Amino acid sequence: xxxxxxxxxxxxxxxxxxxxxxxxxxxxxxxxxxxxxxxxxxxxxxxxxxxxxxxxxxxxxxxxxxxxxxxxxxxxxxxxxxxxxxxxxxxxxxxxxxxxxxxxxxxxxxxxxxxxxxxxxxxxxxxxxxxxxxxxxxxxxxxxxxxxxxxxxxxxxxxxxxxxxxxxxxxxxxxxxxxxxxxxxxxxxxxxxxxxxxxxxxxxxxxxxxxxxxxxxxxxxxxxxxxxxxxxxxxxxxxxxxxxxxxxxxxxxxxxxxxxxxxxxxxxxxxxxxxxxxxxxxxxxxxxxxxxxxxxxxxxxxxxxxxxxxxxxxxxxxxxxxxxxxxxxxxxxxxxxxxxxxxxxxxxxxxxxxxxxxxxxxxxxxxxxxxxxxxxxxxxxxxxxxxxx
Length: 389
Description:
By secondary structure, the protein is of the alpha+beta class. 36% of the residues lie in helices and 31% in strands. It contains 11 helices and 19 strands. Strands 1, 2, 8, 9, 10, 11, 17 and 18 form an 8-stranded mixed beta sheet that branches. An 8-stranded mixed beta sheet has the order 6-5-13-14-15-12-16-19. The chain has a 3-stranded antiparallel beta sheet with strand order 3-7-4. The longest helix has 29 residues, at 326-354.
């Protein structure tokens, strides 16, 4: 039977960042991941799964020592962010207003993961077991005993569940969730075009759902199309040429002509774990919370979870305290749960407000965009919060 101080279930972006930031503590860390990520090659087309990574999240990746590897693969900064419904009523955020070089980066999820895995290979106290799948969990006085699908066992003091929205570890720990489906689904479309704006990410709200552009550089971008389930499935069934015509008809003219390279779609579901901690199991990232992706804050919330827990564990190690002490883990939950609830609630307000076609409400929300554009210090505070500053 193997033993370690911390077992991390899930070696994706959140789990790998947790391992990389905790590695300098000297604790023995074992990362269990079920799927090997595809190796990166520059000629590969962009993945569909793209994250808008805030300035604060970039700093965490730098702290982990992974940023150079990530930027050496593919990373694209954006300096402006715009939200609008009616023409002339937009709110635009600019890095210049905060004297920053960028608001954030557009990064492929796999590239983030691969960059972090390169870092983990350098730490003698960290091991990645892949492919490896979890079977059962038994909590005991020493922490938790994990039995894997191949029959092997791992005794650990602390378990970090970073295995995504359908977290197997969350289920094994007996932690329930509050969840519901949104009426909309989301379609991701990789495109290329000569007129694609490259320094700005924008989102235009429409009656059936928002349309958004995520710039990827060098004439490439990811389009995000929110709509009802039937409409998204209809779009997904089209060939690329037919989809291009639909994009031209339903996206703002500023987009210009595009060529579709790839597409995919998924349902939108809100989840929040009823607790983040149970015994020696701690939920992080999507295992603890998922939100409407309107503002692209999902991965940034997960990284914030990691940052808080990382600080608490490092402090415990320095003081010679138990890294799995109940009060330490509950302190993590108290610090992260309100912030995650706030962001979930804000996205739900946006979703509900822009799903309503009452004329007075449409006028009010567009006047709100106009007011926000000229709100001065308040606008800067919103920008700083979104950037994690």
